[in-house]
């Protein structure tokens, strides 16, 4: 039973954004550029920075990698002298790849300006947009993020802070928002804390708010605290002020951040991502041991989990696969033949390492399964006598609605095939996945309220209603494989 | 007494737009490209086309000349298969040179789309914008044109046609609007008909609406009629339907269109522009004869008026100045020294023609006067014994508010200096201007209601209130040199 | 009897170069940029400048218009501080459109450098190249100009000046050469002076050498003298030194320079080009009068000749055709249909001027005839009752070998059709051409040795042997319509 | 005692090229693109491909990464239909960064064409170039590679093969050459085999010759054999023919290929690079054990050696440093402050891994030492209690002349400082290097003639005379630390 939500095609498993904001430093746009550089893995199809120059906001943005947009030409020079800035790197879904969707969005008013950078996905966006349009709103982007600007602008509340709170209480889903006005920088996180969001402080005491601690390191900022679910943080010349827009919160951060998205050197709610992945590998080894000669991780994302697996089993952890460092741009078009070549341009097997060996191939996840199939084939061509695939996360069976570009199950291998079928399809001698409990234990984030994690991809237990997406998921609910918690 | 309106710097005398729309043809975007090509003189700093592909509107736009935006790359290919389109070439005033102001603007709704191309200037734009913002509107551009989209969207009227009429009755000033929805192409002209706007028909019977008849010729369309002041024209699969959004109209087209802006091969309200200019030259000769040997026009804009002057006087019309064909791009920065070089890169005097001659130098207008100064100097360097400057229009003394980028008198030579001063400043042996009556007669558009022309630049009689600009003009009103008619 | 020489396709009638050199001024590359700007009409497909910075030569070049190569980016900044420079604008024939052919060429030696800019065509290039290759020379360009570098380098003479003279005596055909070394600027003109070449002097006394006087005006240089056939001019810190590489000279400048290529504001051997064209028009009127109402010239190249024709006949000279100012770039591909559109994008007829009139359409030349056909059609569509075509030069029947891109007669209308056929093909009521004698008289350059002009295109009398091209022309010689003079 | 050779500044340790050639396949340029993609690590500042289309060679090349040159635009389309091709990726040294130096070079002759791609450095290039120039040769590039073209062209031998052999016997130094003519593909390797060079075969039997086996894998070619020192391989429609241009050979491949340059998945003379590096790590552990908690390799180049070190010691191999995947382009300028930031943008330490740990930091080599200093500092900031640096190669003390961009010892830390000084400068608790014997053993290439390796960087024993570079090295020879073997 495959679903396709809202008619959107999807291309893979991609996080939709990284965001970075800073207030009160010299050359704030430069710092934002360096911070976004550390977040480039969270979005490669567009980048933008809005800086505050002489009290006014100026926007620079473009399609492509950060370095395409800001590493050449005058975009960064145009923001010289900024003393506050917000930035964004974006993964644009197909069909909405126009420059108008590249964030931060910037709205101009006769009397003010407001810039917005958003990481996440609003589950009631279609309802809100229709309602706003009925009330006369004109949208220039097809991005759900623009909705918040309209809600803020239309709020009857008196102060900007009150307007923002008002607007935040109308949106649902996953969101880490950064808002910049000429007067302040605002940061807000959804009530479940679906996305990571951290506060740092540079030497001079100025505050930085960004998606991952890795971005703090690059700009020389010290970690202060995670933004907590439901918080609205205001940073201005008077310093940092922490408030809540709602008290009904329950931390359930997206487990995919630990499994795949976040950088290994980032810490999320106090848990180092690399270390969590090593534990996933160790737990996986405990759950699914196999008689083999060497462990080979798929570079670079699965090296941590492979290392955990190898250590737990005592097997040597070998570089049986090598990744080409220069893969940013290829002109590959997506035919089957070319997709295989794309994998071969990216990864090579090392005959001297795997020939004659029984290999445990460790990967972090299986989405479509085609890449796994090509890698298994490459290892066999290089002489591996057996290939046992071990995956550091459970079977990916249900769509995401909180900020990952995977809103359909059509192409999810695990949603449509049994374990035996999958094993055959990728050509492995055996295939096993980490259990959901194993994942939760390995991350180790448990709170009094529960796991602290969203694991709905794997078990179908969504931590909140999904609003506009609910009708599309009804067949799964009817089949008894999916359920939704109430809002806290 | 110099004024500067709304804090805007201005750079010269520039028309702000050319527009082109077509419904129901094959490859409508290609035709629009060719049509805009004939209108490139109306705006060189940005260009855009919105095409209807499979019932949906798609926008392509960019900074620079039409050929920069559409002559390379994939922009025009992206619009392949369009069966309706609107296009725009823009002169962007300094300070608002972002891509977001390049038209046609395109607004997306959950249930529809609307594209807008505007030639003109709305005199109550600041009031309307503030009011709309107070009501929650978010503007993405700083262009006044976006206001109409908000007014249409917020209109309580039932049909699109009624919403547009409603909106048109709220805006004042000069406007030729083209609106494209998936269902129809709409064209509307302000009640004074400040800007030229014509309807043509191609061989298959499909309609084209555009700024000048010159654009009709290029796409092989036959002239049908001028859009009349106050009209709303609707073109869809059922054909053309002509309606009025107001009956209170009075034709007063901007006389600068005849003097300077429009192409000589265009006809406006039945008057050929080249022919009108020849009559200006002839009338100028009658008003201000001078004993001389040859007539030299400033290429290319003043060749018609020079030819009229020469014919009327019997003096030989000589090519004493040559214009470089390749002036599109220079890297000149605006220092005094470089400004003179810019003129010298553009124009050269021909010694063999002017040496030892008493020259009547004919130009169409004097704005700042610096170019005239350089040209007179060049003619003297080439050996002219006398240089008598004759200008085919009256002294330009007051600002424009209906769609020309000259909203201040600070830099207008004639607003700040006497005729004797001007003569000395440009270094001429004599300097004379066409009279306002001479201009009106030469164009010959007189209607029962009056001249059919706006000549406020020259005589201070504005044919309508100027709304948001009124406070800035109050000193002139107080001084008794400017007055405003009521709306018709 | 049509010939096609050396297998080259040709596209039209295009001059192959403009060149500019200067020694001893501040910012010599900037001055060269301005000078080349005035020569852009002589070549639009590539541009380059070599500047001397701190005693070393640096090259910047690129494809496209001068402003594409130097008006953006850093190319001109890279040459900042140059105190001598040579520049080149090029018309690249198809098949050799690579960057390696863009001049000035620059050769590096362990102990020196030499840059070369060439306007013209070497008639013994194939023989020389083959011989040089046999002797081990490696060519990086397919340009004939590179041959001179090899000849200079291989000369056994002692000094650079002697080497250059030696090389110049080995090449035949049309050439104006500029050579720049770290020590001097050299200028040389072929023994017939086929191409124009002038020396000017700026205020500080420094010398400029360039293709046309128009380029002198733009950089503020005074005309000093024409380079004479057979001269080698050396300019260095000691001033200018004029020498001859041969005494066997006979001025026979290409008449096409007066007819079409040169700018009207340029003087060539003391004759102003515009004035010469006016005389061509007057002579044409005397030779081929016709009963008509108005004269219409094809803008911009034929306006001078039309003015001469009109003055001589007393007919009014009217602007019946208007040229679009923005034609630099179109994305037109060369199908018949699109070629007509290209003409329509470039030129428009003015109905108000030509309707009901008997028109004398004056053009400077007819090459293929297709443009003439489209223009006649446009005038008739605009209501002209009769169209009489008068051409300011004789019938173009034979190819050029001295520096114009027309080395075949295949596409030359006059080479393949009678006057009656041509009249019918272009759809004119009548068609007449200026006689060769009329042309010679109108230019008025006669010397003791003869006309001072090359008119071989029209009469088949080539002023020199054509060496490598001779075999291809043999059928014409056999037919008795073409002959070649011996070298002087 | 630091030397600087031939006035060239150097920037780091960079291999100068990767080359790829193929004969007789469909879309040979596409295959070359894929092959070069696998060699991008060997040169990132320029790329080019020459393809044979319809029997003629066409060149496309540009500055930047392969994907910049061929992944966009039309460069690869321009080579469509090629049935043979050679390609090149280049590391351009500063001062010679012009497009004219980007290879393959292509020379045109009246009767033929020849393209050349070169990996290496010719030690008698200055002498040869001067001699050729004296004989009239003109060089268009400043690259030493062009010399071979001139030598071939000037050879009195009869056949192309004989000419090439003749030329190859005149050049000295390191070279793997690919030459393409319309008739054949030639591959030649210098008598010491300084650079890796391998032959592969695709399914249809056609031959590929390239720098590394990694490139064979990507294009689906099977490894056939290494090109042997002194060989000239000819590939044409008749198949492959192997010949020698000299019998005086002695394999001494550059050890840096195993240490740093080559990809881990490549095999060189039968030795897998990753496996060799693991052995270097194991040997290093045996030579320089230390009491520690974890091993951390510098990603990505040192992961193999770190893994060998960890395995040998039984210490856990941890991901204490993470490399940003998106480092291709930064706009960093080389100030000290920015250099540190550049390292921080590229590498991050993982606090959760290193905090409180005694770390063995394993790197492959130390050139300047600044990167090591920053990394040690980062590890300490992340809480490492001790940092012991272990380097998988000996101290880098002497320059290279066979194809690596390090021809000076000025910036080589080990050339100018004692081990104790180096330890202090990088801030490590201890610092040790692999011995030369340990390196030779770990690679394990020993032949009857010797080590099969060039280790001159480390021990000063150069395997050949260095010709034009000899004078600069004389002080080292005098000091008794450097010596040169005779040619074999």
From TrEMBL, chains A, B, C, D:
Residues of the active site: 17 (nucleophile)
GO aspect biological process, one term: 'de novo' IMP biosynthetic process
Pathway assigned in UniProt: Purine metabolism; IMP biosynthesis via de novo pathway; N(1)-(5-phospho-D-ribosyl)glycinamide from 5-phospho-alpha-D-ribose 1-diphosphate: step 1/2
Cited SUPFAM superfamilies: N-terminal nucleophile aminohydrolases (Ntn hydrolases), PRTase-like
Keywords: Glutamine amidotransferase, Glycosyltransferase, Magnesium, Metal-binding, Purine biosynthesis, Transferase
Required cofactor(s): Mg(2+)
InterPro entries cross-referenced by the UniProt entry: GATase_2_dom (IPR017932), Ntn_hydrolases_N (IPR029055), PRTase-like (IPR029057), PRTase_dom (IPR000836), PurF (IPR005854), PurF_N (IPR035584)
Amino-acid positions noted as binding Mg(2+) in the UniProt annotation, renumbered to this chain: 301, 363-364
Any Pfam family: Pribosyltran
Name recorded for this polypeptide: Amidophosphoribosyltransferase
Organism: Periweissella cryptocerci
Gene: purF
